[in-house]
């Protein structure tokens, strides 16, 4: 039963660090490679660079929630929301309202 999961390419769950600038500060985010693939896809679906998408998402989460206690977890769950949206509407491109700060 678990062969689909257990037999996956280890490169998919390899930890990848990316340096990004969020809220005017340089930081490093570590996620599994498969999540970075999805984050790049989500950013492209919003016509944003990945860096811009991450910064915008952080700013919006900060505005809505007052703080962002675990940004890496926010990114992982955002990927799940994205995939769930795609599964519910396979013929439509998932659309998420991102307010791009200028």
UniProtKB/TrEMBL annotation:
A Pfam family annotated for this UniProt entry: RHH_4
The domain of life for this entry's organism is Bacteria
Q: Which InterPro entries match?
A: RHH_dom, RHH_sf
Asked if the keyword DNA-binding belongs to this entry, the reply reads yes
Q: Does the keyword DNA-binding apply?
A: yes
Q: Single GO molecular-function term?
A: DNA binding
Record domain Ribbon-helix-helix: where: 16-83
Keywords of this entry: DNA-binding
Q: What is this protein called?
A: DNA-binding protein
Q: Which organism is it from?
A: Peteryoungia ipomoeae
Question: Taxonomic lineage of this organism?
Answer: Bacteria, Pseudomonadati, Pseudomonadota, Alphaproteobacteria, Hyphomicrobiales
């Amino acid at each position: 039963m678990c062969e689909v999961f257990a037999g996956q390419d280890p490169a998919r769950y390899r930890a990848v660090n990316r340096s990004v600038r969020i809220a005017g500060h340089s930081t490093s985010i570590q996620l599994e490679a498969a999540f970075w693939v999805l984050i790049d896809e989500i950013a492209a679906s919003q016509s944003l660079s990945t860096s811009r998408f991450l910064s915008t998402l952080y700013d919006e989460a900060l505005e809505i929630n007052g703080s962002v206690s675990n940004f890496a977890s926010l990114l992982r769950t955002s990927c799940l929301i994205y995939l769930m949206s795609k599964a519910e509407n396979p013929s439509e491109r998932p659309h998420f309202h991102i307010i791009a700060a200028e």
